[in-house]
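Sample 3 of the quickstart, ligand glycyl-adenosine-5'-phosphate:
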Amino acid sequence: MNQEDLFKNLIAHCKEYGFIFQSSEVYDGLSAVYDYGQNGSELKNNIKEYWWKSMVQLHENIVGIDSAIFMHPTIWKASGHVDAFNDPLIDNKDSKKRYRADVLIEDHIAKYEQKIDKDVTKASEKFGASFDKEMFLKTNPNVLRNQQKIDEIHTRFAKALNDSNLEELRQIIIDNEIVCPISGSKNWTEVRQFNLMFSTQMGSVSEDANTIYLRPETAQGIFVNYLNVQKTGRMKIPFGIAQIGKAFRNEIVARQFIFRMREFEQMEMQFFVRPGEEMKWYEYWKEKRMKWHHALGISQNKYRFHNHDKLAHYANAAADIEFEFPFGFKELEGIHSRTDFDLGRHQEFSGKKMQYFDPELNESYIPYVVETSIGLDRTFLAIVGNAYTEEKLEDGTDRVVMKIPAALAPVKATVMPLVKKDGLPEKAREIMDKLKFDFNCQIDEKDSIGKRYRRQDAIGTPFCITVDHQTLEDNMVTIRYRDTMVQERIPMDSVNKIIAEKVSMKTLFEKQA
Ligand code: GAP
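Result:
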C-alpha cells in the first residue's frame, strides 16, 4: 500500500477509535481545527507529561509556567509579529486555490529528493551487500542531475527568502513549471505577504475596544515573565522556563490533518544564557532534544536536522528536527538561538529594565536565549503515524495495531473476564480495582476474546489480562502482549508490578541521560 493510502487509513482509524475528530463535525467541520477524543486526549496528556518531566523534572535549572493566551497588544509589536509574521501566498487563477509560495517550491524540491531516494533503493536492491551508497550518490548520472537541480533551485530559493524578494519567489515557480495540484495549471497570481495572527476585540464598548491577538507562539509569555520567575525562583543564569499551551495561526495552507492547524499546542522552553555562550547552548539543546525523540524508540532514520534557509527576524542560528511523516520529511521541532532580540525589544517597548545582574561576573546584561519549540500535535502525528500498523497474521486474518510506546499508550491494560458469569467478572473487577490507582485501565466484557484483543490492539493497549475459570482456583491470569501477541500465565498479584515496569516513563528518561 502506498503512503498516501496508508495516511488516509490512519486518519480514518483515528476517528473510528476516538483519537481525533474534525472540529464542529455536525456543522460540516471547521477547516484545520480538530478535537481530540477519549483516546487522543489520553495520549496527548502522556506526551505532555513526557516532555514536561524531561524538561522540568530532569533539569534542576528549568522551571515551568502557564501564561495567559491574551496578552498586551504591544507585546506583538515589540516581538516583530505584527510587522513580520507573514507567509508569502500565491493564488492559482484557475482553481482559485491559495498556496504558500515557499511550500510549493519546497514540495517541488522534495520531488527531486524522492527521485534520488528511489534510485538509491533500486540500486541497493540490485547490488545487495556490495552496494556502496556514498559512491553511488557521487557518481550516478541520474542522481547527479537531480542533485544539481535541487542545488540550483535551493540557492535561488534561499536568496529570495532572505531578500524577501516576492517577485523572485514567483519567478522560481514559473521557471520550474510548478503547477497547481488541483487545476494542473501554471496560471499564478503575484506573490503577496499575509500576516498569520488572528485578532479580536477586548472591551465591551466598541469605541474603546482594543485589538488584541491570539498568541501565535507561547514563547512571548515566557519572555515577559522572565524577571518575575528569575527573582521569585532565585534562578541563576543559565536557566530555563518551560511552558505548554495553545497557539493560533491563520495558516494559508492548512492541510495534512493535524500537521498544520489553525489552533494547535506548543511545548516551548526558553533557556537564558550569558551573551557569547549562546552557540554552545544551541549545540547542547540540539543534541539533547534529538535524544528525547530517539528515546521513544522510533527508528532514528526517521529524524534529521535541517538548518533554516531563512532565519526568523529574531534568530542568529536555527535548525529544525525533521521527521519523516507519511508525506515526507517535515519540521517537527525548532531549536532557535534568539539572541537578546525579544528581551531587548520588550525593554525598549515597555520602558522596563530586562537586565539580569550576574553575581559571578559582577555585571548586568540582557541574557541571550536559546529556544526549543515543539508542536504537540505534530509529535502526536509522528507517534500515531509510526505506530499505525496493518498486519497480516499467520492464520490469514488481518489486524490493525497501534504500536504506541507503552509509556504513552492511552490505556495501559484491559482486564477481560473470559465469560460474563461464574464469578469471572467479579474477579476481573478485583484486579481492576488494584490497577486503577496506578494506571489508566479498562474492563472489557463484551464479545469474543479475539474481538476484544483486536479492539485493544486498535487503540494501542500494551497489555490484556484475561481472567478464566482456572483463575478462580489458582489466582493465575493470562497476560497478552500487544506487539508480539505472546501470552503468558502469571500470578494475579504480580500484574501491577509487571505493568509498572513496562509502562514507566523512567526508561524513557534514562535513555536521554
Ligand atoms: N517560538 C518559536 C516558534 O513558534 P515555529 O517553528 O514557528 O517556532 C514551533 O513553531 C513548532 O510549532 C513547529 O516546529 C511545529 O511543530 C509547531 N507548529 C507551528 N505551526 C504549526 C501549525 N500550524 N500546526 C501545528 N503545529 C505547528
